[in-house]
Design a protein that fits this description.
The complex is a heterotrimer. By secondary structure, chain A is of the alpha+beta class. Chain A has 3 domains: about 1-40 and about 145-220 and about 325-370, FAD/NAD(P)-binding domain, CATH 3.50.50; about 80-140 and about 225-310, D-Amino Acid Oxidase, subunit A, domain 2 (D-Amino Acid Oxidase, Chain A, domain 2, 2-Layer Sandwich), CATH 3.30.9.10; about 430-530. In chain A, the strands form 5 sheets. In chain A, strands 6, 7, 8, 15, 16, 17, 18, 19 and 20 form a 9-stranded mixed beta sheet that branches. Classes of the chains: A alpha+beta, B alpha/beta, C alpha/beta. Chains in contact: A-B, A-C, B-C.
Chain lengths: ~550, ~425, ~375
């Protein structure tokens, strides 16, 4: 029977951050994730590293936290951040009083900002509406949520921590009011197992309420669905915010080659079975068009939804999604319900994931009698780039391929370079839209990586394979073959994998009922759906 | 800065279906060429992400527009590549060479001061060797012969009172084939037009092909301004060179889109530009095409090669159909792809092998047909065909003119590249 | 002398898919002057044009005639289809499954598991998107599901690769067309495998322009049957079908306007006069007596009414049920309001019927031809 000190439930940014923090404090821990890392809210957000500007007027405290964390993450995880900068755009139809209020609040909090005239703003971002009043700058940035989560896990694993993906917790073992361990099931193999531990940290986000119930306690979570749209190419080079009271579809984030518009805010019963209606997409596009008119003609690649797990104790349960604090809550169930060794962390936002992890780990350390202070604000998440490897990569690969591989792999680029040197055929680009080489594909599917991909979708989260216009139609097939060739899957398993993968990709596109992506979807279906005797689910 | 909403949309149209690659002649000829899908829409997405995407390969694009035609979704593939080409960093030697290749008008002016001297020196082996060494111009090819630029608007007194048209000769006719220019004017007169010669320079295609969009912009501006009066007065513009024609119809509008005034003018020029054969077909539809052909005394076996810039105009195959009406002419449409010359491309030393490989299919088709002459309206296609096959290649206007039963003498003209124009038997069945 | 240069035609066919090409052939075979306009070879870049006759009544009037016409057409073009309405064959796919078809080109027809006992699935070294091991394993499973005993073995051959090239089907296809040496190299590489099996299934690489002569040469030399499996785009067998049909149609006088989408249909007083093509400079106008719309499932917007359906004789009607123009016919996927795959049978049938209707032959053909 496996034994550890702490079990973390949930492999989002927060859980990953906790694993890393604990590993730095030398507290043995195992993270259990029911699907893949960053599969929940973490992987279904804008990837916006807030500067605090969005909360400056309403919630100075949250804004300050964001500002502080923004700086820290840029420092500890530069490979995950593209410091695009951001604009808060003053639209002529919005309240001018808010503009001044916003500027003053930022000054007060310490968010560096500059006033831009309409012409200056349009010079920087020609896709803004020509009739804007002006804009403010801010240090918003894009953060690659997958890389961020993976880097936390990778660094922790390098220090001896463990994680298990596709492992669903089905019971928390409590004896005489004290946590003894957790029982879980590997959803890929179907095997049951048990880890004995002293403490369990519930970092399950939208699933936190369900996990808490296993420990017999209550964690009221309001699931607030946000839908986002991925556009085929960058329409801005900075994060574009609308300078007004936060609302729907008022942020556009450039993220790699694409840009992401969002979000909506709709209370839903739970974190699963999320659906998007064509009306919701039209609604987001209509609002987004007020901020960036080019959206009207832009191609939507896919839509996705995630839930913000908002902490909603009874006192605020009547409020709407945006009224509940975006701050986080740390619940020590020993002091509340007298369940020893069980802690929950809920709410919060991606930008403050490290702060949340720190809060949890401070509490857990105290309970375990460990006196090591938190150091996640200063320890780099990954060694600095390997310049020599990059130079060699440039000799083997086209420049954009090498550049993208380096962004994703950092110092691990050297492994890809070595593989291509040994087998030149690995230089083949298998995902054209995101410039993923066969070498990288084999790396993430292989045993050399600390966090191997188990499904084709996992490959996507590690490499962005399938995230471009074709949505996995061509590269998904190649990834399947790679998994088969590397004996990760049998032929039958590979086929099943691919079927599941395409189905999920198709679903993400099927809500889009007009525009070019529909033709792409039909192409994909024609290619695999019918011609190849390969049938999707009925209906959409 | 963003240039064009249309390209923004066009970029989004790409379904990654690869139709463009299958149509690209360079993909056929060069095993390592990444193809239009990658060089165009694929890299463009990443350029906008701020990734360094410059690559030598953009230099290999022929600008034939076959990718644009193959795309089922109207992606402006070649336009995206052309922009990458304009931004491509070149070595100093190539910069120098491409500076001159981008300016055939200027070259023409200089080389025709004393054309005999130019032709003589260009014909000398040592000169060609030096050009290979210092300019990276292939010594394999002969240069087209230069002739005194004496193409003028025909004498008004002697003219009929037909519809006014303005003939845009372009550099090749201006400096190398003024004789052809005169035949075009005559052909127009015979078909009821009152032609005049536009006082313009180079259309700008070579500038674009050599990645010099500033020069192309200058050319476009000058050309548009100089032809506005005629167009405003209701005159149509006629081209006999398919590349000039393509440029007048699309290129000017693209280049000048940022200036509303010039853009409007460019659109008007575009809407009133006709390929010579296109104009003659329109004339035929109006019942005014001159069919007083001399009776055939022999058959004339011709093979027609449609230049890429003719295909990209979407006007069908007017020359093919016009010549089919000439008594005694047997004409076959070769439909065998791109000739590989692409204007100045085939002159570049490092591109020469690709140029010849691209033309391979066409050369084979010509040899298999074994015509008395190949007809094609593009001067550089003619050069490539003669170079690659040894068959004579001529402008179809010559054949048509020769077919008329006028008292006019039978004109002889050839685009032989041996150094100077020489008279020999012209394709004629009269 | 009749004006053979004019841009006036007896019939304009919009779309160069299976439906468009079939109707062009049908109309041209009846002596009409045909223009075919299209914005590209479209869907031929994937798949291979195989024909399924599913959910269709095989007694549908003129179906047999249309299918026979199509078989003859492809045969004349050098890429002949085998099969018949009531035939069912299974041909292998890159997913290692079998696609049920009624007709398929000769270079795929023999892929049916009943046609052979020993099959070698042959991959090419470096052609990473075709995994013979995977396909052979899956085909073996599916063949036994079909009650067939054919045995599948995976093989790999090595072919020379030019410097700097990454092996791809397009490259191999071009080389098969252009280099006799490459064809011989391929034959030599396959020869040892051929002696032990009765069918070689290989990725579609046997030329973009090749016809029966070039492909049967290889079969003859090897002494066994060959079946190509279309790969991820570009599908060489699909492009071959398009190229061969295009060459054939040009030969019988069809005028192609390839690469220019239709900007507008010129409809006046219930008749279509022609179309405006989106061409450089200004729209190119071409006119005709009849228009056949075979523009695929995304082309409904070309018609003046946003939502439309069709009469039984394939004329588009507006929301009130009135015929939009009495000389417009529709063929192929445009007839379907759902994205369901027609398997090309409807394309052939309606393409043929429309081509005949344009020639004024038998309006009765049209009746009930929507399947």
């Amino acid at each position: 029977m496996e034994r550890t000190q702490v079990v973390i439930i949930g492999g989002g940014a927060t859980g990953a951050g906790i694993l890393w923090d604990l590993s730095l404090r030398q507290i043995p821990a195992v993270l259990l994730e029911q699907k893949d890392l960053a599969n929940g809210a973490t992987g279904r957000c804008h990837g916006l590293l807030h500067s605090g500007g969005r909360y400056a007027v309403k919630d100075a405290e949250a804004a300050k936290e964001c500002l502080e964390e923004n700086k820290i993450i840029k420092h500890i995880a530069p490979h995950c951040v593209e410091a695009t900068g951001g604009l808060f755009v003053k639209c002529h139809q919005d309240d001018p009083k808010f503009f001044d209020q916003w500027f003053d609040s930022c000054k007060h909090i310490g968010i560096s900002t500059k006033r831009l005239s309409a012409d200056e703003a349009l010079e920087l971002e020609p896709n803004l509406p020509p009739d804007i009043v002006g804009a403010f700058t801010c240090p918003d940035a894009h953060v690659d949520v997958f890389q961020l989560t993976l880097s936390n896990i990778e660094s922790a694993v390098a220090r001896g921590a463990k994680f298990k993906t596709y492992c669903q917790v089905n019971a928390i073992d409590i004896d005489h009011g004290k946590v003894k361990g957790v029982r879980y099931r590997d959803t890929l193999t179907g095997e049951q197992d048990y880890i004995s531990c002293d403490m369990v940290i519930n970092a399950a986000g939208g699933w936190a309420e369900k996990v808490a119930q296993m420990a017999g306690v209550e964690v009221p979570v309001r699931c607030d669905k946000g839908t986002l749209l991925v556009l085929n190419h960058r329409l801005s080079s900075r994060v574009i915010n609308r300078c007004r009271k936060p609302g729907d579809a008022d942020i556009l984030v450039p993220a790699g080659p694409v840009c992401i518009l969002g979000t909506s805010s709709i209370t839903v019963p739970g974190p699963e079975g999320l659906t998007v209606s064509p009306e919701e997409i039209q609604y987001l596009l209509r609002l987004g068009t007020e901020l960036v008119p080019a959206l009207a003609e832009a191609r939507v690649l896919r839509s996705f939804s995630g839930v913000r797990p908002l902490y909603a104790p009874k006192s605020v349960s009547g409020a709407g999604g945006r009224e509940i604090s975006r701050g986080f809550a740390l619940l020590d169930h020993e002091s509340i319900e007298n369940v020893k060794g069980f802690v929950s962390i809920v709410g919060g936002k991606l930008t403050t994931y490290r702060l949340m992890a720190k809060a949890v780990c401070d509490l857990v350390s105290k309970k375990l009698g460990v006196h090591e202070p938190c150091s996640t604000h200063e320890v780099l998440l990954r060694p600095r780039r390997d310049k020599a490897a990059f130079q060699t990569a440039l000799l083997l690969l086209a420049r954009p391929v090498a550049e993208k591989a380096e962004r994703r792999l950092g110092a691990n680029l050297v492994k890809i370079v070595k593989a291509i040197k040994e087998r030149p055929e690995l230089a083949e680009v298998v995902c054209e839209c995101e410039q993923v080489t066969r070498a990288e594909l084999e790396y993430v599917l292989g045993d050399e990586t600390l966090i191997p991909a188990k499904t084709i979708t996992d490959v996507g989260r590690r490499t962005r394979l399938g995230f471009g216009p074709c949505q996995g139609t061509f590269c998904g097939y190649r990834a399947m073959l790679a998994g088969f060739q590397m004996q990760r899957w049998s032929a039958a398993e590979a086929c099943a994998q691919f079927e599941q993968y395409l189905d999920e990709r198709w679903k993400g596109q099927s809500w889009i009922n007009q525009g070019k992506q529909v033709e792409q979807l039909y192409l994909s279906r024609d290619l695999f759906g019918v011609s190849y005797n390969f049938h999707e689910e009925e209906g959409r | 800065m963003r240039k064009d909403r249309k390209d923004e949309v066009s970029l989004d149209n790409c379904l990654k279906c690869t139709d463009c690659n299958t149509a690209c002649p360079v993909v056929t000829a060069h095993p390592a060429y990444p193809g239009p899908k990658r060089l165009g829409p694929e890299l463009e997405r990443m350029r906008r992400e701020g990734i360094e995407c410059d690559t030598e390969w953009v230099e290999y694009c022929l600008g034939c527009h076959r990718c644009d035609l193959a795309c089922p979704n109207q992606v402006n593939v070649s336009e995206l590549i052309a922009r990458a080409k304009a931004a491509h960093k070149k070595t100093p030697v190539r910069r120098l060479r491409d500076f001159w290749l981008a300016r055939p008008g200027l070259l023409g002016k200089l080389n025709t001061i004393v054309p005999e001297v130019t032709n003589f020196s260009l014909g000398l082996k040592p000169v060609r060797k030096l050009m290979s060494m210092f300019m990276k111009i292939t010594p394999e090819r002969k240069f087209p012969a230069y002739t005194k630029p004496d193409l003028r608007t025909p004498n008004v007194v002697a003219m009929n009172k037909g519809e006014r048209v303005v003939f845009f000769p372009g550099c090749f006719i201006q400096y190398n084939q003024p004789e052809l220019g005169r035949r075009v004017l005559e052909l127009l007169e015979l078909n009821g037009f009152q032609p005049e010669v536009a006082s313009t320079g180079c259309c700008g295609v070579p500038s674009l092909a050599n990645g010099n969009s500033e020069e192309a912009y200058k050319r476009a501006t000058a050309n548009v301004n100089s032809m506005m009066e005629a167009v405003n007065s209701g005159a149509r513009i006629v081209t006999a060179c398919s590349s000039c024609g393509h440029m007048l119809k699309t290129g000017f509008a693209h280049l000048l889109e940022d200036d509303p005034d010039l853009a409007t003018k460019a659109a008007k020029i575009a809407a009133n530009t006709y390929d010579l054969a296109e104009l003659l077909v329109a004339q035929q539809d109006a019942g005014k095409f001159n069919t007083r052909f001399a009776p055939a005394t022999a058959t004339l076996k011709l093979a027609y090669h449609a230049p890429c810039h003719q295909k990209s105009q979407g006007i069908g195959r007017p020359w093919y159909h016009l010549l089919r009406q000439v008594p005694g002419v047997e004409i076959e449409d070769l439909n065998a792809g791109c000739c590989g010359m692409s204007g100045t491309f085939g002159f570049k030393e490092e591109k020469y092998p690709v140029s010849m490989e691209v033309g391979g299919e066409l050369f084979a088709a010509i040899s298999a047909t074994a015509p008395q002459a190949v007809v094609t309206e593009c001067a550089t296609c003619q050069m490539q065909i003669e170079h690659g096959t040894g068959f004579k290649a001529v402008h179809p206007a010559i054949v048509l003119l020769n077919a008329y039963a006028t008292d006019a003498k039978q004109y002889s003209f050839t685009a032989d590249t041996s150094g100077k124009p020489k008279d020999d038997n012209m394709p004629s069945c009269a | 002398m009749s004006n053979v240069a004019s841009n006036h035609f007896d019939v304009i066919i919009a779309g160069a898919g299976v439906a468009g090409l079939t109707s062009a052939a049908a109309a041209a075979s009846r002596g009409l002057r045909v223009a075919l306009v299209s914005s590209g070879p479209g869907t031929f870049v994937f798949g291979a044009g195989c024909v399924e006759i599913q959910n269709m009544n095989s007694k549908t009037p003129s179906l047999a005639e249309a299918i026979a016409f199509f078989c003859k057409l492809t045969d004349l073009a050098g890429c002949g289809f085998y099969g018949a309405i009531d035939e069912h064959r299974y041909i292998p796919t890159i997913l290692g499954s079998f696609q049920a078809v009624s007709l398929a080109p000769f270079y795929m027809w023999n892929g049916d598991p009943s046609a052979s006992n020993e099959v070698a699935v042959v991959g090419i070294k470096g052609l990473s998107s075709f995994n013979s091991q995977f396909i052979a394993e899956r085909l073996a499973t599916h063949a036994s599901d079909l009650g067939q005993s054919a045995a599948y073995v995976a093989k790999e051959i090595a072919l020379s690769v030019e410097p700097g090239a990454i092996p791809g089907t397009l490259r191999f296809g071009h080389r098969y067309d252009r280099e006799p040496r490459f064809r011989e190299e391929l034959r030599n590489a396959l020869k040892p495998i051929a002696s032990n099996v009765d069918l070689i299934a290989l990725p579609g690489i046997l030329g973009l322009k090749s016809g029966r002569k070039e492909i049967e040469w290889l079969e003859r030399e090897l002494g066994c049957m060959i079946c190509e499996i279309p790969t991820l785009p570009p599908s060489i067998p699909g492009l071959r079908l398009f190229n061969r049909l295009e060459v054939h149609l040009r030969k019988i006088g069809v005028e192609f306007f390839l690469g220019f989408p239709i900007q507008q249909l010129l409809i006046k007083e219930g008749r279509c006069k022609g179309v405006l093509l989106e061409t450089p400079g200004r729209p190119q106008k071409i006119t005709s007596e009849t228009l056949i719309l075979a523009t695929g499932q995304f082309s409904g917007k070309l018609l003046p009414t946003p939502s439309f359906s069709f009469t039984t004789d394939l004329r588009p009607v507006d929301s009130t049920g009135a015929v939009i123009a009495d000389n417009i016919f529709a063929a192929g996927a445009i007839l379907q309001n759902t994205p369901a795959h027609a398997g090309n049978a409807i394309a052939i049938l309606t393409g043929y019927v429309c081509g005949m209707a344009a020639a004024g032959v038998g309006a009765q053909y049209a009746q009930g031809s929507q399947g």
